[in-house]
Amino acid sequence: MPLLDLDDVLAVIAAKSDPLSRADLRRHRQEWVRVFGRRWIEAHGGRFTNQGFDWHVFSRRVSSYVAGEDAIIRVRACVEHDRQLLVWPEEFGVGSVIEAKAGLGIEEFRKVAGLGRDLYISPPNLAWTFVTTHEGVSSLEIGPFFADASWQQDGEEM
Asked: What is the pLDDT, as a whole number, of residue 38?
């Protein structure tokens, strides 16, 4: 699988972008795990054993989420209000802070999901997250996922 060129994603959704420092990205990813992987951590004795992909908190149905077209519809609605976003691929230690383009539609998010990469999009406060996976374009059709932070705290199942 070719490496994700983050610029491909940014070209679709970003009006403006700045790189995240490695330290800021590491802190943000740790906080993402704390928010969206809380139940996984509790179920595994305080360890985050994600088998190499943080999005397994959704595919293993440990955390609450919606998937597929529902995920795309929800992220589009959230980005209307949360235009400042953090975007990072699963690997490579890179990420960007972006200002999302105004008026992004469903098609732009379908295009991002269709890239077949492990990619995370969240506002800085982690109120929600949108995750695409390399399995989303395979026969397994895993993802994309959308999760709200409040669903994790309340134990609400979607």
From this structure: 80
